[in-house]
């Protein structure tokens, strides 16, 4: 590579996204006191650009504007320019995204915001083309106009920014209004189910026409709704909606049939043409959902998809030290000789390429059939490409095919006169060869930043899959990742989580000079992961750490006046607002996850004040939960867990005994959202016996592993057979 012409301060950062901009002609600063001081001292406006490393339009804006020397000069002369990786600093991102959404009605990344020297926003948008077009004003023009306004109307601009800030403070407040009781669970669940049912796509599954997102939070809600209404028509519909959606996604192009794992979302109604980036948080949540679908339906199809996701994560997103990387990009070079990257280049195929890779005649099939014919039919491959031009505005996928399962195995087998088993073997061989050919292509960029929150979601995915699929290797991988978090993303002296660490030189794990402290979501997702990990591994050390972190979360983020938790802690002068997220989106919001965390924490510790806190969160979001619970499906689900009271399933037995293992397998084979597992192994000095004195009174009946169902510290009659336990779990 040639020596770069420009280098700015971002060269000293660890974030892969910031490093991508280190050689722009723009004099970028990271979000730092140095930048704020410069803006004040020189009385300059700040231009804030927020994005992330797998964001397609962020790459486009960089190519068009931030690499442009003349635009760079305008930026450097008139503004202090700051670049933020939204995955490193979700707090900064949320403050200014709240502003952009409020003032423009939309939002997204790259986010472009202009701030006064004291960090108050006054103009914002997302992507700007470099020059003026017929319908859009260009970035160059916007920069010059804003610089002019600052010269001519500074006072009006400052006054306006103050008004905007006051309006934002007012708009974004979430607190208890008068009544302090949680909303009625039955109504919240019924409304949420109805709203999801109304937006459900009967043909292809999912909850919108297009674009279509995986939204695991919706599926999690539906599974819980089914579990509490198993015998009703609504319960049956909830299960059907969730399973059909998962099936259609797994058949679709959003699922990488050759390289495993799931892409971010589909641009069309059929789950066919995706945006090709792969995010860790999707893999973690979807692994859990497919495991749950298997647990409920017993259909091996779902277990296979869960294993496919975990194979991808273990192979491609895993650091040798045990952590998980954040994401894989959508754009890559089509060949080693290409000069420019294209979206999806790593994943798409031309028909002739597949024919050349799979020329073998298929014995026993209709005359003249090749392996290529069978494979192309099954995966919807067309000679001229299978991507509609409407879904490919930049013509990057012209003549290419995104693999999608268009017919069932039975239909494909019948079409070529093959037995099902034989067809399965042929398709497997086809995928193997395409995978080997794809390995020769240049790989997309990997964001090797490791985030506590997303690692938490992935640990939950491995732990839940390990328990539901009875695969010890998944539980071991979850344990390895939790040990990584403890070593690299936790400060034992302060007892606090850190937000991020990075793969550095020689593949060693590195930390930034000033580590970023954990945010609310880091605590919520890691605590959830540790509870899931305890239930899968039965190692009490993870529980102990989870409860310590819950105390720390309470201390740093709880709002004693308005209830619920703030997303970021107090005391950062560069943050204008302390916000509470109110939407379960691609990831659940931290307050939603925390409701269930608190109920689990109370059951493992005997601290009933945590149950009270859970109710106070629900009270703070009561209005939204009653009117539009579809925006908070994970919290709506938690209202049911709160209402039905979490039950403790206590298994008294020797962890190594076959009878104990059989009882544990029974617990793991049933999905019961309002139950949690405790193994009472008789060691009275252990953490759980110290926390929950009532465990000492539970005995093994006739020397056999014995199960009790306990609630509010009172327990059912003991049962010693897995069949009786199964009945108890399903009731």
From TrEMBL:
Q: Which InterPro entries match?
A: 6-hairpin_glycosidase_sf, 6hp_glycosidase-like_sf, Ssp411, Ssp411-like_TRX, Thioredoxin-like_sf
* SUPFAM superfamilies in the record: Six-hairpin glycosidases, Thioredoxin-like
The Spermatogenesis-associated protein 20-like TRX domain sits at: 7-168
Which GO terms of type biological process are on file?
Answer: carbohydrate metabolic process
Query: What is the name of the protein in this document?
Result: Spermatogenesis-associated protein 20
Q: Which organism is it from?
A: Spheniscus mendiculus
């Amino acid at each position: 590579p040639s020596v770069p012409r420009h280098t700015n301060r971002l060269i000293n950062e660890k974030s892969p996204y910031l490093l991508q901009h280190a050689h722009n002609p723009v004099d970028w600063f990271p979000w730092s006191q140095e930048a704020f001081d410069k803006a004040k001292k020189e009385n300059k406006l700040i231009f804030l650009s927020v994005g992330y490393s797998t964001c397609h339009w962020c790459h486009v804006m960089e190519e068009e504007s931030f690499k442009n020397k003349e635009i760079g000069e305008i930026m450097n002369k008139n503004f202090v320019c700051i670049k933020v990786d939204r995955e490193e600093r979700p707090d900064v991102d949320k403050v200014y995204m709240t502003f952009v959404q409020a003032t423009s009605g939309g939002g997204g990344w790259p986010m472009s915001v202009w701030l006064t020297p004291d960090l108050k926003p006054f103009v914002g948008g997302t992507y700007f083309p470099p020059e003026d077009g017929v319908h859009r004003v260009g970035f160059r023009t916007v920069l010059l106009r804003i610089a002019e306004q600052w010269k001519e109307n500074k006072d009006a601009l400052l006054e306006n920014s103050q008004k905007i800030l006051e309006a934002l403070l007012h708009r974004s407040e979430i607190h208890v209004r008068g009544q302090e009781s949680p909303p009625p669970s039955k109504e919240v669940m019924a409304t949420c189910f109805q709203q999801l049912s109304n937006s459900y796509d009967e043909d292809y599954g999912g909850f919108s026409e297009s674009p279509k997102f995986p939204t695991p939070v919706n599926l999690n809600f539906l599974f819980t709704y089914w579990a509490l209404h198993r015998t009703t028509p609504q319960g049956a519909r909830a299960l059907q909606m969730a399973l059909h959606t998962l099936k259609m996604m797994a058949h679709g192009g959003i699922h990488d049939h050759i390289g495993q794992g799931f892409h971010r979302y589909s641009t069309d109604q059929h789950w066919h043409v995706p945006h090709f980036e792969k995010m860790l948080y999707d893999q973690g949540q979807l692994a859990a959902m497919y495991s749950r679908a298997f647990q409920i339906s017993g259909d091996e199809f779902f277990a296979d998809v869960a294993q496919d996701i975990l194979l991808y994560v273990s192979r491609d997103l895993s650091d040798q030290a045990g952590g998980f990387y954040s994401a894989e990009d959508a754009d890559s070079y089509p060949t080693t000789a290409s000069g420019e990257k294209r979206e999806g280049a790593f994943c798409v195929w031309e028909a002739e390429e597949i024919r050349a890779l799979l020329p073998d005649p298929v014995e026993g099939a209709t005359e003249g059939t090749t392996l290529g014919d069978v494979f192309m039919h099954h995966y919807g491959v067309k000679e001229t490409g299978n991507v509609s031009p409407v879904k490919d505005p930049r013509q990057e996928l012209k003549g290419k095919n995104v693999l999608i399962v268009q017919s069932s195995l039975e239909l494909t087998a019948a079409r070529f006169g093959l037995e099902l088993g034989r067809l399965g073997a042929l398709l497997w061989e086809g995928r193997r060869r395409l995978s080997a050919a794809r390995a020769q292509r240049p790989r997309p960029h990997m964001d090797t930043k490791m985030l506590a929150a997303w690692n938490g979601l992935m640990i939950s995915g491995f732990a839940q899959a390990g328990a539901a699929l009875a695969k010890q290797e998944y539980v071991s991988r979850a344990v390895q990742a939790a040990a990584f978090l403890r070593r690299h993303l936790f400060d034992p002296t302060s007892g606090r989580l850190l937000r991020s660490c990075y793969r550095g030189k020689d593949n060693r794990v590195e930390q930034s000079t000033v580590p970023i402290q954990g945010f609310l979501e880091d605590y919520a997702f890691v605590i959830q992961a540790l509870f899931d990990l305890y239930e899968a591994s039965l190692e009490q050390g993870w529980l102990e750490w989870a409860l310590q972190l819950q105390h720390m979360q309470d201390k740093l983020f709880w709002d004693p006046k308005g209830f619920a938790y703030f997303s970021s802690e107090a005391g950062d002068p560069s943050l204008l607002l302390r916000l509470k997220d109110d939407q379960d989106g691609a990831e659940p919001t931290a307050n939603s996850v925390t409701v269930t965390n608190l109920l689990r924490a109370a059951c493992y510790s005997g601290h009933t004040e945590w149950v009270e806190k859970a109710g106070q969160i629900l009270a703070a979001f009561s209005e939204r939960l009653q009117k539009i619970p579809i925006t908070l499906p994970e919290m709506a689900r938690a209202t049911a867990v709160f209402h039905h009271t979490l039950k403790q399933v206590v298994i008294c037995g020797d962890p190594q005994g076959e009878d104990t293992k059989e009882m544990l397998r029974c617990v793991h084979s049933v999905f019961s959202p309002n139950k949690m597992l405790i193994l009472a192994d008789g060691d009275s000095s252990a953490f759980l016996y110290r926390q929950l004195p009532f465990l000492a009174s539970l005995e093994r009946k006739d020397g056999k592993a014995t199960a009790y169902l306990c609630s509010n510290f009172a327990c059912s009659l003991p049962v010693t057979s897995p069949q009786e336990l199964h009945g108890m779990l399903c009731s």
